[in-house]
Structures are given as C-alpha cells and as structure tokens.
Amino acid sequence: MTNTIIELAKTLTINHSKKELASLARGFGWKGDDARTPILQLALYVATKMGVDSEPSPTDSSQDEPSPTDSSQDEQQAPADSSQDEQQAPADSSQDEQQDNGEDETAPLDNNKQFEQLLKQSNIAHPHKLLQKVWLLATKAKQNVLLVGPAGSGKTMLSQQLSQLIGCQFGSVSVTMGMSESHLSGWLLPIGKKGKFDYMPSPFVNCIQNPSVFLLDELDAGDSNVLLMLNSIMSNGFITIPHKLDNPTITRHADSIIIAGANGNGEEYMRNQLDGATLDRFYQVTVDYDKDYISSLFGNKTKRKSPKWQSVVNDNIQMDLAREFYETTAIKLKKSKLTKIWGTRVAQRMTSALSAGIPLEEIKQDLFTDYSMDEKARLS
C-alpha cells in the first residue's frame, strides 16, 4: 500500500502544479489549510477515493474503526453537512485561491509585472538597476532602507526614482555634522501676528505625515543626537516635538518611506561608523557603480547589459533556511564577541524581505553590509 501511495504522490507532483493540487483537494471537500496538505497525504486521500484499501497500524486501528453509533450519526448529519459545504464552497474556494497565490510558481510575475507597469506609467527613462529591489523593500516589506555605497553610485537618483515610480512627494536633507535637530523637527519662529512665535514644520515633518519618500543623505556624517531623534520616528512611528505647543506628537503616515544614504560600508568608505541602534532600524542595501552604464558613456555599445534584478517566490523551505541561518549566526556572534546587534529587528527584516520576494542569499549578504572584512572572517 505504501508504494502505491508514493507512486500516486509522484504522479500528482509531475502532472499538477501546487495550485491544481489544492483545487483537487478542495474538490474532495477539503478547505482552508487542509487544501494545502503535503502531497503524500493528498495521495493517501486520492487512494482512499479510488477504493484502495489501506493497512492501518495497530495503534491507529482502534481510532480508525467507527462505532455503530458514530456511523449512524454520520449518516444523519451527512445531508446537513453537505448542504453547508455547498453553500460555503464558493467563499472557501476564493479564500484558498488567494492564499495559494503565495505558493504558486507563477507568483514572481505578480511583483515583476506590477513593477513593470509602474515603471511604464512613471516614464522613468533609465531606471536604476536596484530600483525594483528598493521598491519591494520600502513598499511591500515596509522597511527603512539604508543605501550604502561610494559617492556617485546613484543613491540620490535611486531615491528620486522611487518617489517618481509610486507617484508621491519627495524630500531630502543632508545630515551634516553641523545640522541641528530643528532641521528635522521644525522651528519656533516669530511669524505670527505682532511677532508671535509660531511653529513652522520642517520638510521632514511635512513629508512623514503624508505618502512620500524622504532621503536622509550622508547619514554617516550626522550628529549622534540627531540620529537618536530619527530612531524614534523609525521604530515607534511617531515623534514628540516639545516646541510644537499644539498637538506636539507627529505620527508617521503608513506610506511614508524613509531612505538614507551613507558613503560606503565597513572600513572602506564610511566617514563615521554608525551606531548599532541606528543601523538596527534600517535594511541595508549595497549600491555600487553601474559598470555597464559607465562603459556606454565611452561609446561601447557591444558590451552586454547586466542581468535585470527580479523578485522570487520564497516558500516555507526558504523560511526554514532563513531561521537556521539566523540562529547559527547568533551563536557565532556570541562566540566571536563582536559588538553587533542581532535581535528581533534582524529577524523581522529577514522575514519581511523574504515575503516581499528578495532572494535569501541576497538577504544574507545585505545583513553583513556594515561588517568589516575582519568581522566577516571571524564569523566564517
């Protein structure tokens, strides 16, 4: 019997997609999570429907044999259950189809096609090669994104293209060492009647209360006190401004996107090493020079273009591998005594990025963007 079930499972796997198998299961009366049961169990169910006798184990035989009372009750309840199932079937079917989309092999086309449509509508002539990745991280995974790379690698252009892609306002500020907190929180100025001091919001405050993209450029050059204020709005979703006397609490809009730029990673470029608390609130993306674009500036039209970045579908297997990687790295960090934060936010970034369609191997590389070569070697 076991061999028969295995052969049925293999046949079903070869001839049907996951979505078709789920539909087949629903045709047998399964609903919800049961419709996505493992292939082997589905094969067992099909074998039962085909009249193949199973050989129950001794421990299961007592549970599998229905009593006369149970049989009569089942026969009495069957018509009612059948009618209820028929009434609920359309709703259950639509819900299952929506849930199955996350596991369907064609799901990558959803994100990729959506991006292509937005790109076409936005009229962006030369999109940055990482635009789709940053779009997924910012809009799907809801991450604050830190773009790390040398000057002139396209960090500002990438941020501007993101706002153009989704059709929202764009704002920016250079986070220099001399910049005060007021450049982010706003000012109390004598602009009212008879010189009365009134609150004037900063471009940052105006942006974060609306659908927008705001770029914090040169973040690695900023004052530590300014960065602490940023940490509050990025992690808590609100900021309290003492000199704003009326309604001092500013709440961040759900579609407010915060992008930051830093000149390099590890020991190679960064002016000042950002503290762990600030880095822990960002998903870091390495941005480098587009060699193909630079080559084209010199009239080299024969060089092949870089492969286009596209999203993927990450199933439960990838999620399990991500969990194993997270736990293994946590142990290595503890043994190496590196002063790196590897906590809840790291796990949240990983799972959010996986759900958004970022490849697992790419996520692993992104997590070590701010690690020096020596630190990476100690974890290997």
At the fourth CATH level, what is the homologous superfamily of the largest domain?
P-loop containing nucleotide triphosphate hydrolases
State the CATH architecture of the largest domain: 3-Layer(aba) Sandwich
Number of helices: 17
Biggest β-sheet, characterized?
5 strands, parallel
Residue share in β-strands:
5-15%
- Helicity range of the residues? 40-55%
Shape: globular
SSE series:
HHHHHHHEHEHEEHEHEEEHEHHHHH
**CATH class assignment of the largest domain:** Alpha Beta
> Residue ranges: pLDDT <50 for 5 or more in a row?
51-107
Please give the number of β-strands. Answer: 9
Strand order, main sheet: write it out.
2-5-8-1-9
How far the N terminus sits from the C terminus, by CA atoms, comes to 47 Å
| CATH-assigned fold name of the largest domain | Rossmann fold
Query: How many domains in all?
Result: 2
Radius of gyration: 28 Å
- Mean pLDDT metric: 79
Task: Give the helix/strand class.
Answer: alpha/beta
3D architecture notes:
The chain is an alpha/beta fold and 380 residues long. The chain has two domains: 2-100, no CATH class; 108-379, P-loop containing nucleotide triphosphate hydrolases (Rossmann fold, 3-Layer(aba) Sandwich), CATH 3.40.50.300. The protein contains 17 helices and nine strands. A five-stranded parallel β-sheet has the order 2-5-8-1-9. Strands 3-4 form a two-stranded antiparallel ribbon. It has a two-stranded antiparallel ribbon with strand order 6-7. Helix 1 (2-15) packs across helix 3. The protein starts with a helix and ends with a helix.
